[in-house]
């Protein structure tokens, strides 16, 4: 262990992780972790924390030593997100069952299959923008970002458009039911039951007479002769709403926040060149990603930087900290959509790139690498460029903003501003 790691002044009080200050601005603690405690044993919460870029990257890719599942996926008990979503891929760890489910559906969110849905993403973006364009101002979180991804997904699934608002309500109840206490839990379960009753006959029908919609594609998709069971389809649809809706809406809000408040000088660059929305997305996913932490359990004793993490230990992979590691990126605390040391193009599941530039860690890496990475990137870039094309002179309505914050990191740590007002002139 190096001298720096032993410095008493660098001790961290683990209760800091529960404070609003940390939820708002975790970056000084991340720096302290990376510099002095690259493997930090948080005795208060009984977990280990990994924070340097290459260590997080290595742990994501090391399936022999780290597993996402805490319990036996085929055990007789309900756990994790199953109570809300039903059986779903998030809870199968690194098992063969995870690979089976992933292989059946992963191809639906990339390449030509994704391209088929692009015109619809344009149309929905315009419809959402139409609702506020005459007002000269918009509250981006509620009127723009949170309206888009859920409508896009329900359209991709081929659900009737007249039911879209009901779907938005179910979605909001499901997300709240995941981690915000008793009352929300009961409302979440009710929404889940209603949604399942709604979707059951559609699954039966589309398995028999599949169309081109995503629900049909999921029902009939096969890998080595295996399809998803109806319960697995329902679980996957529910997961899609959260994994694909909640995250992407926060990504869109975060992009606008950083352009308006962190780098207003670069907002004009994006307005002038719509191709830069993809750079903005990538730099947001590095600088202050929607998801800052992922959880793993060790399957064996691991020695790293002279410290030992025991077998069966809970581990947090702080990808938000890895993304600010000066060992991987120059001037990491600067938000810069023109940076030349970050791979700006399509994300890569292996995490490393042939052109020598490092990728961001915001979609994870390896076996559990985000299935919707291409969809999230394209959807965010399309929606934002549509909005930018229809307005002039966008600017913050209020000079001051309280900033982006996470909920408690134990509830997943999705980061976004509470609200974000923008004023604009009409084009
Ligand atoms: C900006 C938006 C998004 C962010 C920040 C995000 C983030 C992530 C992260 C960090 C993981 C890795 C989990 C782990 O390693 O344990 C993940 C997995 C996953 N994501 Fe996303 N995601 C986004 C959008 C989407 C979309 C649009 C979809 C669906 C269309 C999606 C579906 C999934 C699924 C199904 C998994 C689990 C994959 C597996 O375990 O094999 N995500 N996402």
Commentary on this structure:
There is one protein chain. The protein contains 18 helices and ten strands. It is α+β, with helices and mostly antiparallel strands and 427 residues long. The chain has two domains: 137 residues, 2-Layer Sandwich (Uridine Diphospho-n-acetylenolpyruvylglucosamine Reductase, domain 2), CATH 3.30.43.20; 250 residues, Cytochrome P450 (Cytochrome p450, Orthogonal Bundle), CATH 1.10.630. The strands form three sheets. Strands 1-2-8-5-3 form a five-stranded mixed sheet, with helices on both faces. Helix 8 packs across helix 10, helix 8 packs across helix 18 and helix 10 runs antiparallel to helix 14. The chain is globular. The N terminus is likely disordered. Bound molecules: protoporphyrin IX containing FE.
Summary keywords:
427 residues, alpha+beta, Uridine Diphospho-n-acetylenolpyruvylglucosamine Reductase, domain 2, Cytochrome p450, 2 domains, five-stranded mixed beta sheet, three-stranded antiparallel beta sheet, 47% helix, globular, disordered N terminus, binds protoporphyrin IX containing FE
User: Which ligands appear in the coordinates?
Assistant: protoporphyrin IX containing FE
User: For the record, what CATH class of the largest domain applies?
Assistant: Mainly Alpha
Mean pLDDT: 88
Please state roughly what percent of the residues sit in beta strands, choosing from under 5%, 5-15%, 15-25%, 25-35%, 35-45% or over 45%.
5-15%
Reported for the largest beta sheet, the result is: 5 strands, mixed
**CATH fold label of the largest domain:** Cytochrome p450
> How far is the first residue's CA from the last residue's CA?
60 Å
Instruction: Indicate the CATH architecture of the largest domain.
Output: Orthogonal Bundle
What name goes with the CATH superfamily of the largest domain? Cytochrome P450
Pattern of helices and strands: HHHEEHEHHHHEHHHHHHHHEEEEHHEE
Number of domains: 2
Oligomer: single chain
Could you give the order of strands across the largest sheet?
Answer: 1-2-8-5-3
Round the Cα radius of gyration to an integer and report it.
21 Å
């Amino acid at each position: 262990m190096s001298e720096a790691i032993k410095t008493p002044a660098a001790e961290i009080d683990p209760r800091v992780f529960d404070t609003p200050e940390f939820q708002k601005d975790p970056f000084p603690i991340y720096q302290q972790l990376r510099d002095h405690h690259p493997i930090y044993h948080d005795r208060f919460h009984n977990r280990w924390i990994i924070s340097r870029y290459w260590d997080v990257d290595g742990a994501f890719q090391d399936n022999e030593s780290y597993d996402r599942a805490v319990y036996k996926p085929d055990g007789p008990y309900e756990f994790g997100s199953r109570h809300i979503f039903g059986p779903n891929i998030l809870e199968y760890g690194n098992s063969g069952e995870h690979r089976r489910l992933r292989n059946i559906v992963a191809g639906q969110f990339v390449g030509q299959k994704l391209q088929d849905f692009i015109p619809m993403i344009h149309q929905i973006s315009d419809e959402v923008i139409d609702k506020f364009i005459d007002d000269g101002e918009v509250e981006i979180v509620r009127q723009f970002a949170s309206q888009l991804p859920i409508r896009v997904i329900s359209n991709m699934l081929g659900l009737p458009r007249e039911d879209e608002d009901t779907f938005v309500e179910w979605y909001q109840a499901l997300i709240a039911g995941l981690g915000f206490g008793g009352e929300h839990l009961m409302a979440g379960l009710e929404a889940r039951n209603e949604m399942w009753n709604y979707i059951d006959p559609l699954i039966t029908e589309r398995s028999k007479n599949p169309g081109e919609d995503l629900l049909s594609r999921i029902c009939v998709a096969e890998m080595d002769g295996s399809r998803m069971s109806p319960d697995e389809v329902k679980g996957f649809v529910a997961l899609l709403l959260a994994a694909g809706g909640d995250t992407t809406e926060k990504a869109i809000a975060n992009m606008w926040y950083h352009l308006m408040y962190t780098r207003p000088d670069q907002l004009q660059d994006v307005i002038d060149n719509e191709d830069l929305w993809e750079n903005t997305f990538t730099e947001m996913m590095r600088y202050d990603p929607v998801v800052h932490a992922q959880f793993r359990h060790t399957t064996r004793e691991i020695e790293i930087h002279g410290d030992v993490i025991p077998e069966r230990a809970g581990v947090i992979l702080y990808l938000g900290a890895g993304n600010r590691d000066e060992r991987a990126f120059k001037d990491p605390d600067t938000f810069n959509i023109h940076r030349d040391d970050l791979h700006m193009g399509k994300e890569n599941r292996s995490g490393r790139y042939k052109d020598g530039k490092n990728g961001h860690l915001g979609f994870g890496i390896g076996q559990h690498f985000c299935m919707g990475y291409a969809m999230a990137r394209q959807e965010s870039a399309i929606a934002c460029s549509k909005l930018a094309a229809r307005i002039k002179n966008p600017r913050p309505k209020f000079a001051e903003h309280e900033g982006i914050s996470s909920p408690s990191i134990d509830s997943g740590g999705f980061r976004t501003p509470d609200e974000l007002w923008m004023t604009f002139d009409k084009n």
